[in-house]
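Most newcomers find our protein records easier to grasp once they have seen one. A learned vocabulary of local backbone shapes supplies the integers on the structure line. An example says more than a description, so a record of this kind follows:
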Amino acid sequence: MGTVARFLILYLTPVISFAGTVGAYILVYGESVDHPLIDFALILVVSGFLVSSGLSVKLISHFLGDNINYLGVAFAVIGWLLGLIPVVLYMFLLQQ
């Protein structure tokens, strides 16, 4: 898989997790906390964060070779930090 594809996946994963969390919140607002859609949103958020973390580690190790590319490392870290947003949002919206 190329570097561009990894960056694309790295930045699309938090967007999909964020959309899943907000969608689950909208659909189950006011219902029981035991709703199965909340469990699906948790699986989506955790798997998205794991994919984001794995890709960030691969990209950072790729850019820390003989010739260090600081811009590539910075964009990899920013992508990982964006992966934290759906996790925090899930904790605030769907956990009580």
